[in-house]
Design the sequence.
């Protein structure tokens, strides 16, 4: 019984056939799992770009302001709408409790997206395509993205960032 | 010294009375926090169910913070400390090395838990369980957690001291029982992770008090999860030790192979604490190679260990029931199991729920490509309610039905309610976990007061399927709250007024 000391020399008891079989299956499965993530990392189409850099909030803020001034095409609900050219560096700035600017992107074109926060951690959750990137203050999280669907997208914050967290909603367009 | 012991009439074990008192005190405190956490759970459920939307946002976030601390820290860890004393002193017929140190641990833990609870309730510490900097809580919030962790480490050291004392005084022969072995693995993991926790909670608390500058937010996230995820592996090891104990107590199961089960525990001790970057897969600052090595538990060796237990726990139950003559077909043994014994029902819900709901989804969400879909969505709480609630909490509830007569020496009150309790709790929690993961797959965020986004500058609707899913989550949760309330009532009534078991 598992509540009492086992009989002497329990380590000499050989494993049963069933146990050996299950162990083999389990080891193969563990190896499969281990190889699958790197495999998907090299063959999959939705993977981190592994580019990141430390950046101060002020510097990032200034870079976003410059980006907006350069490519601003309009305004919506008080936020700048920005239409950057293909293959350019694009920015989304998270702060309590807004995402800005509103990006207007083209389908099938690659951009270098820079994400950072001026205050707390935020979660850039793009709906309804549904993906989430962590946005961390002090860090520029860089992703090479190519939009594959057109439409209107909503950016929700899904990392708790303060009492107004649930009002932190932004917009993005792809045409 | 002999006067400090009593002999248990059921098991013949020599029970050290000071150890028994400490087990009682820790178990009762655990249940008090379960009650607090359960009341908060109900309020949170009724808020996230948008049709009811009970709490205002500040209280929602405050109670969510406290719900995590009351349940994940207090309820589970107090119960684990009780288990550590039980598996060392009681199972080995030994005396607890130094009961005074046990009381010191208890006082530190209780002072710590109380300070943190008050700090959260007082407001200004609405930082969630993760308290990611730069979110700042009151310095007392961190102080309380550090005191609690120090108390727990002392309890773990007392456990090991008791083990060596038992060996020295030869209170048992040969190797320690399998359950004690599993508890020892839990204690090893606990000492490592809790010491790790102190490494970042202390500087964070000092930052909150204005003494030192803030640490890098990404460094905090890395350090937090080195504690936050690995501390859940303590619960896994303790829970599996409980599974073996419950299998023995409910159907008289004997481990299929001591070597097989103990090897699996060794794999836990070596590899399960590696993984913590599941939470950082889409974070800056860490390379993908490191994340894959880390979240892959080093060639998935901890997953291998779980697969081994997934074989040997149900296996030993099957063998025990087949020996009772239930040999027809593949599943007669399962059908004829003692389903009226709340401990057995809890065990089955726990094993199946932890494996199929919690473990599998954990591996899924721990891969880069699936994590981008699930990170910070309700899939995550869906996953961990399957592991720590269906898995750990139900295993602990199951073992309570035996702790009450054996340690408290009182007959379980309201046996009919007790029979039904695991079904309410288990079915409710299964529904809640599955429904949370289901709505999470639509991108519904966790820790979010209003997914209708009514006060936001832009409109977006998750659609009627999600509304239905949230309602099902709430209904499952309410069922579980009822089951939890039944458990608390039975436990408290039995402790206070249960009929004494004949000595």
Sequence:
């Amino acid at each position: 019984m598992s509540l009492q000391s086992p009989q002497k020399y329990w380590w000499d008891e050989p494993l049963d056939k069933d146990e050996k079989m299950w162990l083999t299956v389990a080891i193969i499965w563990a190896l499969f799992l281990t190889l699958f993530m790197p495999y998907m990392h090299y063959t999959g189409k939705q993977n981190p770009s592994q580019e990141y850099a430390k950046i101060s909030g002020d510097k990032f803020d200034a870079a976003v302001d410059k980006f907006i001034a350069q490519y601003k095409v309009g305004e919506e609900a008080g936020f700048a709408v920005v239409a950057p050219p293909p293959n350019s560096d694009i920015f989304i700035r998270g702060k309590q409790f807004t995402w800005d600017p509103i990006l207007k992107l083209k389908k099938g074109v690659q951009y270098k997206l820079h994400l950072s926060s001026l205050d707390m951690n935020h979660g850039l959750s793009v709906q309804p395509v549904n993906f989430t990137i962590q946005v961390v203050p002090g860090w520029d999280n860089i992703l090479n993205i190519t939009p594959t669907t057109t439409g209107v997208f909503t950016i929700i914050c899904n990392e708790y960032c303060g009492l107004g967290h649930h009002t932190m909603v932004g917009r993005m367009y792809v045409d | 010294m002999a006067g400090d012991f009593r002999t248990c009439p059921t098991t013949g074990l020599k029970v050290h009375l000071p150890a028994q008192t400490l087990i009682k005190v820790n178990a009762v405190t655990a249940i008090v926090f379960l009650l607090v956490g359960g009341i908060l759970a109900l309020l949170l459920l009724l808020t996230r169910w948008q049709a009811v939307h009970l709490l205002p946002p500040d209280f929602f976030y405050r109670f969510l913070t406290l719900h995590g601390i009351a349940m994940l820290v207090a309820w589970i860890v107090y119960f684990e400390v009780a288990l550590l004393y039980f598996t060392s002193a009681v199972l080995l017929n030994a005396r607890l090395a130094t009961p005074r140190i046990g009381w010191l641990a208890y006082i530190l833990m209780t002072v710590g838990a109380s300070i943190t609870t008050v700090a959260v309730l007082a407001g200004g510490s609405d930082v969630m369980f993760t308290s990611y900097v730069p979110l700042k809580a009151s310095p007392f919030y961190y102080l309380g957690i550090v005191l609690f962790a120090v108390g727990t480490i002392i309890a773990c050291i007392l456990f090991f001291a008791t083990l060596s004392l038992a060996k020295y005084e030869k209170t048992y022969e040969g190797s320690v029982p399998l359950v004690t072995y599993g508890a020892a693995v839990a204690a090893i993991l606990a000492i490592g992770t809790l010491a790790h926790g102190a490494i970042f909670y202390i500087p964070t608390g000092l930052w909150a008090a204005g003494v030192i500058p803030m640490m890098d937010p990404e460094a905090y996230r890395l350090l937090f999860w080195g504690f936050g995820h690995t501390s859940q592996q303590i619960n896994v090891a303790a829970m599996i030790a409980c599974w073996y104990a419950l299998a023995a107590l409910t159907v008289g199961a004997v481990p299929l192979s001591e070597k097989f089960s103990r090897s699996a525990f060794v794999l836990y001790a070596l590899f399960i604490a590696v993984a913590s970057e599941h939470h950082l897969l889409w974070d800056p600052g860490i390379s993908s190679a490191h994340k894959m090595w880390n979240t892959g538990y080093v060639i998935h060796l901890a997953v291998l260990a779980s697969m081994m237990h997934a074989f040997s726990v149900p296996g030993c139950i099957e063998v025990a029931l087949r020996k009772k003559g239930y040999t027809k077909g593949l599943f007669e043994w399962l059908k004829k199991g003692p389903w009226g014994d709340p401990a057995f029902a809890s065990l089955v819900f726990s094993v199946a729920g932890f494996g199929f709901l919690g473990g599998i989804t954990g591996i899924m969400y721990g891969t880069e490509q699936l994590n981008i879909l699930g990170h910070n969505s309700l899939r995550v709480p869906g996953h961990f309610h399957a592991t720590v609630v269906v898995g750990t909490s139900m295993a602990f509830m199951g073992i309570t039905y035996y702790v009450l007569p054996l340690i408290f020496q009182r007959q379980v009150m309201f046996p009919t309610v007790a029979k039904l309790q695991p079904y309410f709790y288990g079915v409710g929690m299964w529904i809640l976990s599955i429904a949370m993961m289901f709505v999470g797959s639509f991108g519904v965020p966790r820790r979010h007061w209003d997914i209708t986004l009514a006060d936001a500058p832009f409109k977006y609707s998750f659609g009627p399927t999600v509304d239905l899913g949230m309602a099902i989550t709430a209904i499952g949760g309410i069922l579980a709250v009822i089951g939890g309330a039944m458990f608390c009532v039975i436990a408290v009534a039995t402790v206070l007024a249960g009929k004494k078991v004949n000595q």
User: Anything to note?
Assistant: Residues 378-503 of chain B form one domain. Chain B has a mean pLDDT of 94. The first helix of chain B runs from residue 17 to 48.
